Amino acid sequence: MSNIDLIKLVEKSIAVSKGTRIQRLKKAPQKMLYSKILEFITILFKNTIRIKTKTFWHENMLVLIPEIVSLSIYRFGFFEEGLTRMVLEYLKPGMTFFDIGAHFGYFTLLASVIVGNEGQVHSFEPTPSSFDVLKTNVSNKGNVFLNNNAVFSKKKIISINDYGTKYSAFNSIYNARIPQNIRKKLKVEKYKVETISIDEYVENNGVVPDFIKIDAESAEHEILVGMKKTINRFHPIITIEVGDMDVEGVPTSKKLINFLIQRGYKPYEFKDGKILHHNLKKRYQYDNILFLSSQ
């Protein structure tokens, strides 16, 4: 399936998601009603429902209701319009894609379709429960290589906070980037995980990343520090999740962006349906920033 075909498909899904409740219900009545019922049941009985759904490109994907990413994919077939558009615009057949913070595998699956048999997808997900779902979702993907590791500035053993299924997208080595009043109510499990730097991974595996997506819940700066050689040598396309939630010990989003600007990158954002040049801000709400090397 070509990128043009994928863009047409996601535009249809985006149009549905942006409609009113009545419009969404008319266009996808079963999905909308059933997802609400499932969400209600999981909240009422405090459990999780594993269910297969279709992505916007009509591929099966296992999701877990009531987890927030899963609900979006179940209802509309996509998650994060801006980042999805960036991947569709700049990832090409035959490229090598690094998915850092793969979660259940939405971007891993999308990248696998785009790069095809001649390309590769290397996915990194440290949380054991999320990794199990990821592994199930890519079990038939010959071009995907999985890593149950946290990406960091260097190799070491660190502790990761697991906030449970519903908030699994916020698992981090730091406090979750969610409101404190919600975080206080969550039961947190801690796991020891092995880390690896991108520079080390690239050298050990002999791979050259063309596009690196980073969504690591506050560990982005450490990841960038651990990929300086890769940046200087290969100048990959990079996307980084930003958002200042004043988490203790976490550098500001502005510092992340400046890190790459100082290394010859230009930042871009998705706004009003387009990918536009990004002007640096003092403080950031949740977003994804695209970086293209000028070298």
Explain what the structure shows.
The protein has helices spanning 3-17, 21-27, 29-45, 68-76, 81-90, 106-115, 128-137, 180-183, 198-205, 220-225, 228-234, 253-261; strands at 49-54, 60-65, 96-100, 120-124, 144-147, 150-151, 157-162, 189-196, 211-214, 237-242, 265-271, 274-277, 287-293. The protein is α/β, with parallel strands linked by helices and 295 residues long. The chain has 2 domains: 1-78, no CATH class; 80-293, Rossmann fold (3-Layer(aba) Sandwich), CATH 3.40.50.150. It has an 8-stranded mixed beta sheet. It has a 3-stranded mixed beta sheet with strand order 6-8-7. Strands 1-2 form a two-stranded antiparallel sheet. The longest helix has 17 residues, at 29-45.
Describe the protein's topology.
Blueprint: H1 3-17, H2 21-27, H3 29-45, E1 49-54, E2 60-65, H4 68-76, H5 81-90, E3 96-100, H6 106-115, E4 120-124, H7 128-137, E5 144-147, E6 150-151, E7 157-162, H8 180-183, E8 189-196, H9 198-205, E9 211-214, H10 220-225, H11 228-234, E10 237-242, H12 253-261, E11 265-271, E12 274-277, E13 287-293
Helix pairs in contact: 1-5, 2-3, 3-4
Structural class: alpha/beta
CATH topology value of the largest domain: Rossmann fold
CATH architecture group name of the largest domain? 3-Layer(aba) Sandwich
Major β-sheet strand ordering:
5-4-3-9-10-13-11-12
Radius of gyration: 18 Å
Number of domains: 2
Distance between the termini: 31 Å
> Any low-confidence stretches, pLDDT <50, length ≥5?
none
Q: State the share of residues found in helices, binned by percent.
A: 25-40%
SSE string, helices as H and strands as E: HHHEEHHEHEHEEEHEHEHHEHEEE
Instruction: Tally the beta strands.
Output: 13
How large is the share of residues in beta strands? 15-25%
Regarding CATH, which class of the largest domain? Alpha Beta
- What is the residue-mean pLDDT, rounded to a whole number? 92
Q: Name the CATH superfamily assignment of the largest domain.
A: Vaccinia Virus protein VP39
